[in-house]
UniProtKB/TrEMBL annotation:
It comes from Neurospora hispaniola. The keyword Transcription regulation does not apply. SUPFAM superfamilies: P-loop containing nucleoside triphosphate hydrolases (SSF52540). Pfam families: Dynamin_M (PF01031), Dynamin_N (PF00350). The keyword Hydrolase applies. Residues 1-29, 353-376, 444-483 are annotated as: Disordered. Residues 450-483 have a biased composition (Acidic residues). Keywords: GTP-binding, Hydrolase, Nucleotide-binding. This is P-loop containing nucleoside triphosphate hydrolase protein. Residues 8-19 have a biased composition (Polar residues). GO terms for biological process: endocytosis; intracellular distribution of mitochondria; mitochondrial fission; peroxisome fission.
Length: 768
């Protein structure tokens, strides 16, 4: 065993080197009584659970003489007997005070319930002298056993053999020096049937290690001198937490029971430092015996017996500062003062750090949410923050919150991008049949697009618009191998990028890359439409023909629009849930809010989709009509282009005028060489073409303005306005509690942090 080897390691010492091997104790008594008093105050408030405090802890195996040693050091007359063995930690505090008194109280264990703490703290005994304590101590311990629920012969109703509660004995008087020592139950290897269990053994060991593991604890390892110290479990335990032996002080007891010369020599080697495994060394003291009771009323008799023993060989050859209770007591006072002075600045710094950490943890829990008002305030704050982020997202104010670092949450940017694609797709794929371009000659004798309406509309849109391109090759089949197909791909493929949650499936089934058909045979379609719908008209056609033609030409509008709205809904939904998850403190709160919001969110999404469908229905089912002057301008231009097309085969270059010219008689022929049916078909085409362009632009704007912007984004009843302070105020008590009510674990954590903060604030006040 490592410890045995280190303890048996011999350091050869000569008389000239003995003084350097044993560090002499500091002279005089402790000079920081005020600090010690403050440390005791902290310990009374169980702050040692949070901040490890400077402590002297006496540990040892059962029957090591520990209680007898403490009686000699502290003057507290511990009763003797197996029934009265240590069942709990005992804190003995000496405090200088004008009034002589002994105060006995109980410090509840941190894990005690509130009811148990109240009961334990209610116990208090005040005695006026050590003599009175000696007479009543056994009875007092019986009472303490009842309060701590320790099972004994006198308290058979007790529930436990050992307790984590602490018995505090405070001895005050004008001659008392400040000293605090904690006595813990002795560890034992074997259990006793009917008395101790394996659980008791583990509990005691856990109690002992709980006291000795901290670096600010001086371990008083009490070892009987008449037993080989290498067999003492307490040394192995001390070495586990103090491997270098820097804060372990060995106290050898019962030297009067050491008989063999070799055993005495081994003890002397330890005390003299010739086998120094501990930096603080060993002390040798004589225990009080059973026959010392009468003399204990006068400590001089006990001291005389101890002095007589240590004047005998070989004890008389030991350094006097290492033998006797008086020397040990003085050293303990010095040690306690040293570790207190060293730890005091660290305690304040550590208390401030732990206080900041506790407050941060408390802030992370949010404000208390026990009452209905607290829950409302808590949810209202979250809702207000949500609306603040929504406003920033709609205004593209992405520097206002870190959530926008994720580009997928830049809401209005995504919406605008998809809307642009929707507009382009409507322009290039919204029609069922391509309109025919009428071509003329320009001044350079080049064929040009006669549908260029730059002077009457919005630019040269028709130059690259398949709706007006007679050369478009027909049906769109979902393959994206051209410029026009790529436009649709961008919108259709958004559905494969955006995660579609199950709750949105009813809105997003259409996102699965719809097939859009655009047909080339415009002339046959219009001719068939006219022939199948004409009535008794003279030189004209029925308005019903135009309405039917427009309805057929806009077949794709519904599919594209629903696709577009589905993607907008998906983006808004993803944004809503992501921001909600970001601002909620914990998954439970997020899921609770999400669960209650979901039905209303889906209903508002449905309103946006329904309104878009309504706009499609209005445009396609109502009779075509517009007051937009672009319709008249476009129609006039189309008719002019058609007349030009009819004349171009008869035109010629006139050198005299330097321009193309046509003979007057050819003009008459050009306008009379078509039948009434052909004129009607041309009129249907040109009117439909002129109206379609105006209607399509109007429709795209209306879908954006009413279905998207008003119903889904910024309107008073949009999904983004749902989670608001007004929504919170409308929740009933049960819903509030279901969403914002604290779980038991949160309540316990908040309670723990509240107490911890109060304790640390009190600790800083004490440590000033």
């Amino acid at each position: 065993m490592k410890l045995k080897r280190s303890l048996l390691e011999t350091t050869t010492a000569t008389p000239s080197t003995m003084g350097s091997e044993i560090k002499p104790p500091a002279s005089g008594i402790l000079t920081s009584p005020d600090r010690l008093r403050k440390i005791d105050q902290l310990r009374e408030k169980n702050i040692d659970v949070i901040l490890p405090l400077p402590t002297l802890v006496a540990v040892g195996d059962q029957s090591s003489g520990k209680s007898s040693l403490l009686e000699s050091v502290t003057g507290i007359p511990f009763p003797r007997g197996q029934e009265l063995c240590t069942r709990y930690a005992t804190q003995i505090t000496h405090r200088r005070d004008p009034e002589v008194q002994i105060i006995i109280t109980i410090i509840p264990a941190p894990q005690s319930t509130e009811a148990e703490k109240i009961s334990l703290r209610s116990y208090r005994k005040e005695l006026s002298s050590t003599t009175q304590l000696r007479d009543q101590f056994a009875k007092i311990l019986d009472e303490v056993n009842v309060y701590m629920k320790i099972k004994t012969d006198k308290n058979p109703e007790g529930e436990k053999t050992f307790s984590r509660d602490i018995l505090k004995i405070e001895k005050c008087g004008p001659t008392e020096d400040y000293l605090t020592v904690i006595d813990v139950p002795g560890i034992f290897r074997l259990t006793s049937k009917g008395q101790t269990t394996e659980g008791d053994r583990n509990l005691v060991r856990d109690m002992v290690t709980g006291f000795i593991k901290d670096k600010r604890t001086i371990i008083l390892a009490v070892l009987p001198a008449n037993v080989d110290v290498m067999t003492q479990e307490i040394l192995a335990l001390a070495e586990q937490y103090d491997p270098d032996g820097e804060r372990t002080l060995g106290v050898l007891t019962k030297p009067d029971l050491v008989i063999e010369r070799s055993a005495k020599e081994a003890v002397c080697n330890l005390v003299a430092g010739r086998k120094k495994a501990l930096n603080l060394g060993y002390y040798l003291v004589k225990n009080r015996g059973g026959d010392d009771d009468d003399d204990s009323k006068d400590d001089s008799g006990i001291r005389r017996k101890e002095r007589d023993l240590f004047q005998q060989s070989p004890w008389c050859n030991l350094p006097q500062e290492r033998v006797g209770v008086a020397a040990l007591r003085e050293r303990l006072q010095d040690l306690l003062g040293e570790i207190t002075d060293k730890a005091y600045p660290e305690l304040r710094s550590e208390a401030r750090k732990k206080l900041a950490e506790a407050r941060e943890q408390q802030d992370a829990l949010g404000p208390p949410r026990q009452t209905e008002r607290e829950q409302q305030q808590y949810l209202a704050q979250i809702a207000a923050k949500f609306q603040q982020i929504v406003r920033a997202a709609l205004e593209a104010n992405y520097s206002s919150h870190s959530a926008f670092d994720e580009h997928g949450l830049r809401l209005i940017t995504q919406v605008v991008s998809i809307t642009d694609t929707f507009n382009t797709l409507m322009r290039k794929k919204g029609h069922t049949y391509s309109f025919v371009k009428v071509k003329t000659r320009d001044s350079d004798d080049k064929l040009v697009n006669s549908d260029d309406d730059s002077e009457v509309d919005d630019g040269n849109e028709e130059d690259d618009d398949p709706a007006y391109d007679g050369e478009y090759d027909g049906e769109y089949d979902g393959e994206y191998d051209g410029e026009n197909d790529a436009v649709h791909s961008e919108l259709a493929n958004r559905g494969t990028v955006i995660h579609i949650p199950p709750e949105l499936e009813s809105f997003t089934n259409i996102v699965k890359q719809p097939i859009i058909t655009v047909k080339q045979d415009n002339s046959n379609w219009i001719r068939n439409m006219y022939l199948e719908s004409r009535g008794i008209e003279l030189g004209t056609f029925s308005p019903i023909v135009l309405a039917s033609a427009f309805r057929d030409q806009t077949t794709n509008w519904g599919l594209i629009t629903e696709h577009y709205i589905s993607l907008i809904i998906s983006i808004i939904h993803e944004f809503t849930l992501s921001i909600l998850n970001t601002i909620c403190a914990g998954e439970k709160l997020y899921e609770a809010i999400k669960s209650i919001l979901m039905d209303d969110l889906l209903a508002r999404y449905a309103k946006g989709m329904d309104y878009a469908k309504y706009l499609v229905q209005v445009e396609r089912e109502k009779k075509p009509y517009t007051v937009n002057h672009y319709f008249s301008s476009n129609l006039q231009k189309a008719r002019g282009d058609r007349a030009s097309e009819a004349l171009k085969k008869n035109c010629y270059w006139d050198d005299h005028s330097g321009a193309y010219a046509v003979k007057f008689e050819h003009i008459k022929t050009a306008v009379t060489n078509k039948s009434n049916q052909e004129h009607a078909q041309d009129d249907i085409h040109d009117i439909l073409k002129s109206y379609y362009k105006v209607a399509r632009k109007r429709f795209v704007d209306n879908v954006w303005l009413y279905a998207v912007d008003h119903h889904l984004l910024s309107g008073p009843n949009s999904p983004l306005t749902l989670f608001s302070e007004q929504w919170v105020l409308g929740l009933d008590e049960d819903s509030l509690n279901a969403i914002a009510g604290e779980s038991r674990s949160t309540r316990d954590k908040r309670k723990e942090l509240t107490k911890k903060i109060a304790d640390l604030e009190e600790a800083l006040r004490i440590l000033k």
